[in-house]
Design goal:
It is built from 13 helices and no strands. The chain is mainly α. The protein folds into two domains: about 160 residues, Four Helix Bundle (Hemerythrin (Met), subunit A), CATH 1.20.120; about 130 residues, Up-down Bundle (Four Helix Bundle (Hemerythrin (Met), subunit A)), CATH 1.20.120. Helix 2 packs antiparallel against helix 6, helix 6 packs antiparallel against helix 13 and helix 9 runs antiparallel to helix 10.
């Protein structure tokens, strides 16, 4: 399998685009994402919402009360109108909060604006349901319930703030910190090192002697090492499966060792050539630190920081919120 085919299999036909860009996706992929969202919504609703709210009516039964609500007169109390709305406030909050997760997950996976719009709509609906619960609380007589409601509202705002962070990261270079390191600190230095290596090698070959034969050999090896490193680090960063972390680390060590040999040759070179060799060694040295960080990040969940925040912050906060919501079931 050639590189293009491999990239296509791993990421799709546009595998060379930066991961944070909103790539075009085939229609079957969008359909798959939508299906995933629907299935996820169903699973979460059945496994999370109903156990937390065992006394709440199912959606169909609760919706049946809409007809009764339409018979209420304008003089009836706000609490009466809320009690006969489509869904009980606590249940509606559970459903709306689940919708924010489904919408955000879809946007995180696809990067498509339509999924962002769906998430934003779900957030607005959740805020509306919180307002409805707050309105209902004006008739509560238990101060402890009122205190817990204030804490619950703070919890919801924290959850939505974390979701907003994820939404902002989807198309940001900060979503993939390791990829950003590669683009900003490694790739330019690699290209500069390759250019300087070619320049110095061509210069020494133009006046090749027995005296500079050893330096020419070192430069030839360094040129090959730089090319291999350039190819492999790009695959390692963008695909993460073409080369293992140990193999990538071996490439970097080899490159550093050859560059060290070159630094020992500098004093034997004419001043102008020695200056090029020093710049070449500096370029190699400048990228070794970022390369080490990239190799560590590539094996960690923080590689995709948006997904990391979703899994490690948003989901736990969502589960805690559902537990806290149980107090307002009635």
């Amino acid at each position: 399998m050639n590189d293009a085919a491999f990239a296509s299999e791993e990421w799709g036909a546009d595998a060379e685009m930066p991961p944070w860009k909103g790539r075009e996706m085939p229609s079957f992929a969008i359909l798959g994402l939508v299906t995933l969202g629907i299935l996820t919504a169903g699973i979460l609703t059945l496994s999370s919402v109903f156990p937390v709210f065992p006394n709440l009516q199912p959606v169909a039964t609760a919706s049946a009360s809409v007809g009764t609500a339409s018979t209420q007169t304008p003089t009836q109390s706000t609490s009466a109108r809320i009690a006969h709305s489509a869904l009980p406030p606590a249940y509606a909050i559970a459903v709306s909060s689940e919708a924010t997760l489904t919408g955000l997950r879809s946007y995180l996976l696809s990067g498509e604006d339509e999924f962002h719009a769906g998430w934003a709509k779900a957030v607005a609906q959740l805020r509306s349901e919180i307002d409805r619960l707050r309105e209902a609380s004006s008739h509560w007589s238990d101060g402890e319930d009122l205190r817990h409601l204030r804490q619950f509202e703070t919890r919801i705002e924290t959850l939505l703030r974390e979701q907003g962070v994820i939404a902002a990261l989807v198309h940001s270079p900060n979503r993939f910190p390791g990829y950003r390191l590669y683009r900003e600190d490694v790739e330019p230095q690699l290209h500069e090192a390759e250019r300087l290596c070619e320049e110095l090698l061509a210069t020494l070959l133009s006046r090749s002697t027995e005296a500079n034969a050893g330096t020419i050999d070192i430069l030839a090896r360094l040129r090959a090492s730089l090319r291999n490193t350039s190819t492999d680090i790009a695959r390692f960063v963008e695909l993460g499966t073409r080369i293992s972390p140990d193999e990538m680390a071996g490439r970097v060590v080899e490159m550093e060792e050859i560059a060290t040999l070159l630094s020992e040759e500098i004093r034997r070179l004419p001043p102008a050539d020695g200056e090029v060799a020093r710049r070449l060694h500096a370029a190699v040295s400048a990228m070794t630190g970022p390369l080490d960080k990239i190799m560590i990040l590539r094996t960690q969940p923080q590689w995709d920081y948006a997904r990391f925040v979703f899994d490690e912050k948003v989901l736990p906060e969502y589960r805690d919120m559902l537990v806290a919501l149980k107090r307002f079931e009635q």
